Amino acid sequence: MNSQKKLEQFIQHGYKDYLPNVSIDCTIFGYHDRKLKVLLLNWKTPEGWSLPGGRVKRNESLQLSASRILSERTGLEEIFLNQFHTFGDSVFRQQRFKHTKALSKFNVDFGEDNWLLDRTLSIGFYALVDYSLVNPQPDLFTEECRWWDIYDVPGLLFDHNEMIEKALATLRHQMYYEPIGYNLLPEKFTLPEIHDLYETILEKTLDRRNFPKKLISLGIIKKLKERKNIGPHRAPFLYRFDKRNYDKALKDGLSLSF
Amino acid sequence: MNSQKKLEQFIQHGYKDYLPNVSIDCTIFGYHDRKLKVLLLNWKTPEGWSLPGGRVKRNESLQLSASRILSERTGLEEIFLNQFHTFGDSVFRQQRFKHTKALSKFNVDFGEDNWLLDRTLSIGFYALVDYSLVNPQPDLFTEECRWWDIYDVPGLLFDHNEMIEKALATLRHQMYYEPIGYNLLPEKFTLPEIHDLYETILEKTLDRRNFPKKLISLGIIKKLKERKNIGPHRAPFLYRFDKRNYDKALKDGLSLSF
DNA sequence: ACAAAAGTGTTGTCTTTACACCCATGG
DNA sequence: CCATGGGTGTAAAGACAACACTTTTGT
Questions:
Q1: Is the Cβ atom of B169 within 7 Å of strand C at any atom?
Q2: Closest by CA position to B76, among listed B24, B32, B135
Q3: CATH number corresponding to A180-252
Q4: β partners of residue B18
Q5: What is the dihedral of CA A205, A81, A35, A168, to 10 degrees?
Q6: Which helix (H) or strand (E) holds A82?
Q7: A49 - beta bridge partners?
Q8: Which nt is closest to the CA of A232, judged by C1'?
Q9: CA A220, CA B221: separation in Å to the nearest integer?
């Protein structure tokens, strides 16, 4: 089946395989060059950028669905994925979708009462991924998929700006009682790197000496014997997460002061 | 329209007014006699206890819907209500509902493909209410509505036990960075009362002298000149929440140690 | 030798915890 | 006058915040 046929099939008969009235949208955070990034898609029609999202298959769990959607856009499996809120209160989400004309580019007959145009709640997940491992892929509905700096995000379709806000707020909050970083950083990283990551996300300067103390004393990160070559400067030591203590902290929670 | 007619109308044509495939369930916490309570409904059929829940009207926000459901069962308006998770992963929630026979008590023809029997995600809210103000009301589907001690909750229908667990975990977590109590206690309360409330929910003994210090120093509770008469013992002072500081703390967050 | 970034420890302050005796009331 | 629960302060320990000079490396 070619793309156009697949698209047509999905638009006209998708409700047989997918739940109507519900979608999933993922805020996918990456970190690169001291900037927090988010992965966005550019729609063919209606024109505009949005979060990557999708529908829930009728025989699929929400977690699996989100993880499928994410893997389709990034190529990654088994990444950190967290359900944070279900959106149904904004004006966009209390009525039917009205852009039947705007959808004409697809050359598929939607029809007034197409299932995709009905009121749709969206279950929001956020993901933390290693920027360097992602190969952004657009889908049938979209022309382009790429990273945006979190502070340059354009006006998005629907309530997606609100979703990113809430995802970010949740992430920030979470950083105080769970370790993060395992999914955003390469396996081996330096203290300045993780320090910058925390400063970037929290938008706050953190003491260069005090910051790592806690993580080290909790056993969450371990110093390696290797150093990273960073050109014309002193080579910093590499560290890595101690997965055992990290997971324990994730599970039991902790309280970071910063 | 009488009850039976209403029921029939809802079962057979409800999908015109309500979103299919989605419901809302509320974990309503109350506090009485040093025990944390939760409000449960006893279904006519399938027999068993469950959380109070309902469907989302097509033109209604989720928040409003939850608050309507809650007010129908408790008679209360404007109470603390928090969306905490959307459930769709348990086996019950990945398939159609199979108990067509079990539904026969209603004397309404459901039919194999009734909208109510399709896979249903549930958006979980939890509420904190003043036990003494609640007048539990069953609905068309249920015989009885009453409080259960949180540790005596019976096996519930579907994944509702899991929901209560998660609601409680969320509540406990929340207590460390937001004040609670305003919605669970009467307007005026004593230090032993709020102390017991916290101990009960957190399942932890809290120092009788240290505990109130924080709340008082943050300005969240204020001492009144009145005392409460508790019979044959020294009359304890009454306190009340300072709504200004309380709401500020709710909004900005705080960090309680306990 | 210089510029740029990394590495490292101590001290003062604040927060948290632990703890015990006296007081008020009703029966 | 006794039983029960309420009220109150201080000191020690631990956590946190502030802070500056030296080392490494490449050009």
A1: no
A2: B135
A3: 1.10.10.10
A4: B57
A5: -60
A6: strand A80-87
A7: A42, A156
A8: D26
A9: 38
- Cross-chain CB nearest to A123 (options B63, B86, B177): B86
> Which residues in chain B touch residue A58, judged by CB atoms under 8 angstroms apart?
119
In chain A, where are the structural domains located? 3-163, 180-252
Q: Nearest to residue B123, comparing CAs of A115, A70, A124?
A: A124
Where are the strands (E) in chain B, listed by range?
A: 18-32, 35-43, 48-50, 53-57, 80-87, 121-128, 142-149, 188-190, 221-227, 237-241
Instruction: Centre a 10 Å sphere on the Cβ of residue A252 and count the other Cβ atoms it contains.
Output: 9
Contacts of A60 in chain B (CB under 8 A): 94
* C-beta atoms surrounding A184 within 10 Å: 21
A85, closest residue in chain B (CA to CA): B85
Whether residue A144 is predicted with pLDDT greater than 80 in this model: the reply is yes
Closest CA to A27 of A116, A123, A154, A144: A123
- Top-confidence residue, B98 or B201: B201
pLDDT digits over A66-91, tens only? 999 999 999 999 889 999 999 999 99
Q: Within an 8 Å CB–CB cutoff, is residue B57 touching chain A?
A: no
Predicted TM-score (pTM) of the model is 0.95
Instruction: Tell me which residue of B22, B97, B94, B99 sits closest to B61, measured CA to CA.
Output: B22
Residues of A in contact with B175 (CB under 8 A): none
In the block, tokens 């069962």 appear at: B73
Superfamily designation of domain B3-163: Nucleoside Triphosphate Pyrophosphohydrolase (3.90.79.10)
Residue B173 pLDDT level (bands cut at 50, 70, 90): very high
DSSP of A147-169, one letter per residue? EEETTT--PBSTTHHHHHHHHHH
Looking at per-residue pLDDT, the higher value among A201 and B253 belongs to A201
Closest CA to B116 of B187, B53, B183, B66: B53
A153 touches B: beta carbon within 8 Å: no
Q: Establish whether the linkage from the previous residue to A20 is cis, with ω within 30° of 0.
A: no
